[in-house]
Design a protein that fits this description.
Elements lengths: L3 E4 L5 H12 L3 E6 L2 H15 L3 E5 L5 H9 L10 E4 L15 H29 L2 E6 L12 H21 L4 E8 L6 H5 L4 H7 L8 H13 L8 E4 L15
Parallel strand pairs: 1-2, 1-4, 2-3, 4-5, 5-6, 6-7
Helix pairs in contact: 1-2, 1-8, 3-4, 4-5
The protein binds NADPH dihydro-nicotinamide-adenine-dinucleotide phosphate and 2-hydroxyethylsulfonic acid (8X3).
NADPH dihydro-nicotinamide-adenine-dinucleotide phosphate binds next to helix 1, helix 4 and helix 6.
Length: 253
C-alpha cells in the first residue's frame, strides 16, 4: 500500500528536499507552504519524475483557522498519513534582545511553535485513527545552544526540542513515533529570509566552509522514517564537518 507523507514548508530548502526524497521513495506527498506557484510547479515535477501523487495545500501555519480548514479538507483517500514532517519555520533578524522587533518575534513564535502545534494536534488525530504514524520535527543547533543575538529564534527551537520530548510521551501509546532532526548550518533560503532579502549578508553565512544541504537533512529524515516501527530515532544533531557548535566554524576553504 502506498504511504503518504505531509511536509510543511515544502516550497524551499529542507522541506522541498524532503518532499523530493519521499516522492523518490514512492510516497504520495502532501506539500504545504504559502507560495502557491511553487507548490503547483512541484506537483507537476514530482508527479512526472516519480509517478506518485501530490496534493498541494497552500496555507499559512501561523493561522489557526487556515490550518484547521486545510487539514479538515484533506480528501478521505489522503487521510492515511504515515509521516508528518514539521519543517515550516524561520528566523527573522539577528539583534540583541533590547533591539529586537516585536513583529519578528510574533512571526517566529507563531510559525515555529504555534504552527508546529496546530499541525501536530490535527494530524496526530488522523494518525490515531489510523493506528500509527511518525511525526518528525526539524529542530536546530539553535535549540541546543543560545548564540549571540539569536535569542527568540533560539527560544523557539528550544521549544521544539521540549515539545518533541513531550509529544513522544503523549503519543507513544497511540503507536506514533516522534523524532527531532536538529541541523547546524544548511544552505537554503533561511539566511535570506532572516536578513530580509539582504543576499550579500546571507551569502556570508555560508562563506569559507561547506554547509549542509537540504538533501543531507532529507536523507536523515527519510532514514528515521524508514526504520522498523519498533525503532525510534529520538533525536539527531547533524552538523557540517566544519561547524563544531553554534558559533565555531572552520572557515579555511
Ligand atoms: P527556507 O527558508 O529555505 O524554507 C522555509 C520553508 O518554510 C519554506 O518552504 C516556507 O514556505 C515555509 N514557511 C515559512 N513560514 C511559513 C508559514 N508561516 N506558513 C507556511 N510555511 C511557511 O529555510 P530552511 O529550509 O532552512 O528551513 C526549514 C526549517 O529548518 C525551519 O524550521 C528552520 O528553522 C530549520 N533549520 C534551518 C537551518 C538552516 O541553517 N537553514 C538549520 C536548522 C534548522 P513559504 O514561504 O512558501 O510559506
Ligand atoms: C538555523 C541554524 O545556527 O542559524 O537553525 O540557528 S542557526
Amino acid at each position: 500500500m502506498t504511504k503518504t507523507a505531509i511536509i510543511t514548508g515544502a516550497t524551499s530548502g529542507i522541506g522541498k528536499a524532503c518532499a523530493e526524497r519521499f516522492a523518490k521513495e514512492g510516497y504520495n506527498v502532501i506539500i504545504t507552504g504559502r507560495r502557491e506557484n511553487r507548490l503547483s510547479e512541484m506537483k507537476e515535477q514530482l508527479e512526472s519524475d516519480f509517478g506518485i501523487q501530490v496534493l498541494p495545500m497552500c496555507f499559512d501555519v501561523q493561522k489557526r483557522e487556515a490550518v484547521e480548514r486545510a487539514i479538515g479538507a484533506i480528501p478521505d483517500k489522503w487521510q492515511k498519513i504515515d509521516v508528518l514532517v514539521n519543517n515550516a519555520g524561520l528566523a527573522l533578524g539577528l539583534n540583541p534582545i533590547h533591539e529586537g522587533q516585536f513583529d519578528d518575534w510574533d512571526t517566529m513564535i507563531d510559525t515555529n511553535i504555534k504552527g508546529l502545534l496546530y499541525m501536530s494536534n490535527l494530524v496526530s488525530k488522523l494518525m490515531i485513527k489510523n493506528g500509527h504514524g511518525h511525526i518528525i520535527h526539524i529542530g536546530s543547533i539553535a535549540g541546543r545552544e543560545a548564540y549571540p543575538n539569536g535569542n527568540v529564534y533560539c527560544a523557539t527551537k528550544h521549544a521544539v526540542d521540549g515539545l518533541t520530548k513531550a509529544m513522544r510521551i503523549d503519543l507513544m501509546k497511540h503507536n506514533i513515533r516522534v523524532t527531532q532532526i536538529a541541523p547546524g548550518a544548511v544552505e537554503t533560503e533561511f539566511s535570506e529570509v532572516r536578513f530580509k532579502g539582504d543576499t550579500t549578508r546571507a551569502e556570508k553565512v555560508y562563506e569559507g566552509y561547506q554547509p549542509l544541504t537540504g538533501k543531507d537533512i532529507a536523507d536523515a529524515v527519510y532514514y528515521a522514517s524508514s526504520l522498523p516501527e519498533h525503532v525510534n530515532i529520538n533525536d539527531l544533531l547533524i552538523m557540517p564537518m566544519a561547524q563544531a557548535n553554534a558559533t565555531t566554524f572552520n572557515r579555511n576553504r
